[in-house]
Design goal:
Elements lengths: L3 E6 L6 H6 L2 E4 L2 E4 L2 E4 L6 H10 L5 E3 L3 H13 L4 E6 L7 H15 L4 E6 L4 H16 L4 H11 L4 E5 L4 H5 L17 E7 L2 E8 L2 H16 L3 E8 L3 H11 L4 E9 L2 H7 L4 E7 L3
Parallel strand pairs: 1-2, 1-6, 6-7, 11-12
Antiparallel strand pairs: 3-4, 3-5, 8-9, 8-13, 9-10, 11-13
Helix pairs in contact: 3-4, 5-6, 8-9
Length: about 290
């Protein structure tokens, strides 16, 4: 294990191979489906959950891990040889994960004052958080210090962007994560909303009359931000691989992509996006 361990939440949605190769540790969110309590990507997997959502008669709910969940994870990392830990989480305006991890950090400090844990609020979600986790893990494997890794992540926070579309905002609304896109809910008949995250909160980015038009708008948004620079992009979806491949084709006609990957939302994130959601998370690498 590197001297600096990297920990995040299951909702980051990174493929298992990347988690393993970069030695990234995750803590599972909870999904409440009626009387069932499921652990994200532990007792419920992506394909099974999306199939269920397509015919579901009620909306499940999610809960972030508690302080004890994070504390156990930190203690395990310390037992495995970590000297420092960077703990990277979804926007605190969307989820309570950052607050729970911060509580665990305080609890651990009383037990093991020599182990340093830095808890990071990414002010974002999905693979925007995922890119920060990946770059932190790469830096840790390269032997960088916790302060150096923290500097890399903090530099990425203001320049990481998400754009996604779905057939409905119903799932975000039911889950209470709608943020500033609230005023779009009642007016969207046969409209594909585009949403993103700004200052840690869900915001509207536009409307389209078809998926194709929404995808073209996504490509225009990315090109407008990146210009002639270079970018890293994660194409994200919930049971919509073929659709997100269309997004990739449009986007990469106009920008210089130096690294890209496809990722599928974990069940705990799919609860709020809904099946069929497609989008991307990106950041410029020349800033």
């Amino acid at each position: 294990m590197p001297k600096v361990a990297v920990l995040t939440d299951s909702i980051v949605g990174l493929p298992e191979a990347i988690l393993k190769n970069l030695n990234i540790q995750t803590v599972a969110f909870y999904i409440h489906r009626g009387h069932e309590v499921l652990r994200d990507l532990v007792t419920i997997q992506r394909e099974e959950f999306v199939r269920w959502m397509l015919t579901a008669k009620f909306a499940p709910t999610t809960a972030c891990p508690g302080p004890d969940d994070y504390l156990k994870a930190y203690e395990k990392l310390a037992g495995d040889g970590a000297q420092d830990i960077i703990s990277i989480h979804m926007s605190s305006r969307i989820s309570g994960a950052y607050q729970a991890a911060s509580m665990a950090q305080s609890m651990l400090k009383e037990r093991d004052p020599d182990l340093r844990v830095e808890v990071v609020d990414t002010n974002n979600a999905s693979m925007c958080q995922g890119w920060m986790v990946m770059e932190a893990a790469r830096a840790a494997l390269a032997g960088l210090s916790l302060d150096q890794i923290l500097g890399i992540v903090k530099k990425m926070i203001p320049i990481s962007h998400m754009v996604q579309t779905a057939d409905t905002l119903k799932y975000l609304y039911l889950g209470g994560r709608i943020g500033k896109a609230q005023n779009m809910v009642g007016s969207l008949l046969n409209i594909k909303p585009l949403i993103g995250v700004e200052d840690g909160e869900i915001v509207p980015l536009g409307k389209a009359h078809s998926r194709g038009q929404a995808y073209r708008q996504m490509a225009e948004i990315v090109a407008g931000v990146i210009g002639s620079g270079r970018v890293k992009i994660a194409y994200v979806h919930a049971g919509a691989q073929a659709e997100v491949e269309k997004v990739k084709e449009l986007v990469e006609k106009n920008v210089d992509v130096v690294e890209s990957l496809f990722t599928e939302f974990s069940p705990a994130l799919a609860v709020h996006s809904g099946p069929g959601t497609t989008g991307l998370c990106y950041y410029p690498v020349d800033i």
